[in-house]
Amino acid sequence: MLQQSVKPSKGFGASLLLALLLPYSILATGTAGILFLNYMKKPPHPLENIPESDDPGVNPKGSGRRVSYAPTPLPDHLRTRLGEPITVGDLTVTPERVEQRRLALYGYNINGLDRSDVLESGEALVLTLKVKNGSSNVAFAPNDPAFNRAFSGAVKVSPPPPPAKGKKQTTRPSSASVQAGTTGDVRPNTFLQIGEEKFAGPFNLSYLTVPTRQRLWLEGFEDDYTPLRPGQERLTAVATALNDQRVLKLSQSTTEKMLWRVMLRRGIVEYAGRDIRVCCVIGVEFTADQIKRSS
Q1: Picking from 36-45, 217-226, 242-251, 273-282, which range would have the lowest pLDDT averaged per residue?
Q2: How far is 78 from 260, CA to CA, in rounded Å?
Q3: Is 20 contained in some domain?
Q4: Around Cβ 111, how many Cβ atoms within 10 Å?
Q5: pLDDT over 90 for what percent of the chain?
Q6: Which residue has the higher pLDDT, 199 or 268?
Q7: Closest C-alpha among 189, 191, 194 to residue 247
Q8: pLDDT at residue number 252
Q9: Largest interatomic CA distance in the chain
């Protein structure tokens, strides 16, 4: 008796292929998901998560630590160029321009900005940045003149005098007890790098040894101490030391890319059950022909 052969239907091969590939696709998708979650759980780079209390310029009384991240190499994801925004935490920064121009430094006393208290004036390189608070519920001031301090003029706080015998200690160090000196590693995290040379900012923190002088100001950016509310943006700036002929000449003659490292507050994070203000360091790359120079 002849047996009739049965041919497989046209959909049989496709069903078999699907049956073989389906477990593989599920496994691959699951593996990719796990890898993505592990990537998202990676701790941020140290330059993205600097506790503000570690900076001796902003917090001269100290957190018990004296930390400078100046020697830490800047990773690619924290670098940008003029006109290109970069976001770290709740902060978005857009470098606007680099100029060589005159500017002045002012003091601020109990009555506010004192334009008669001119600390210094002269020619400098100035990097202007647009900063935006992208948070939905946190206000913070991204920039602080103390970040833009000089390499010299670090500060230390003298301890209060010991209490009289039998009495409790009630006094704390005041601004009048801030003295010129050095406490640990106080190198600023904001500076311009040209080749192997580094050029820090114009603010010498010894300016704050005057008891009536509470803050320092960079001309044209008097709002730096005012917190940005969620969604707000404004211009801020950092500068090199005034009348530093070395940086002015080198910025004209170099053929290398320059890198301006800038420390800024980037929001608040929760740590050990409490909210702490944190900073980041970004890098702005530019070339000599991008610098606008006053005639």
Answers
A1: 36-45
A2: 12
A3: no
A4: 7
A5: 42
A6: 199
A7: 194
A8: 95
A9: 122
Cα angle 23-29-35, degrees, rounded to a multiple of 5: 135
Tokens at 282, concatenated: 């970004």
Of 96 and 214, the structure prediction assigns the larger pLDDT to: 96
Alpha-carbon separation of residue 89 from 78, 109, 138, 157, 230 (angstroms): 12, 33, 12, 32, 13
Q: List the domain range (segments joined by +) for residue 250.
A: 47-67+74-159+173-293
Residue 284: exposure state from Cβ atoms within 10 A (0-12, 13-18, ≥19): buried
190-199 pLDDT, tens digit per residue, is 999 999 899 9
Question: Would you state the structure tokens that stand for residue 203, as one six-digit string?
Answer: 């603010």
Is 1 within a domain?
no
Residues whose CB is less than 8 angstroms from the CB of residue 25 and which lie 6 or more positions away in sequence, other chains included: none
236 assigned to some structural domain: yes
Please say whether the beta carbons of 100 and 122 come within 8 A.
no
Report the domain count for the chain: 1
pTM above 0.90, yes or no: no
Residue 148 lies in a domain: yes
The pairing of strands 274-286 and 86-88 is unpaired
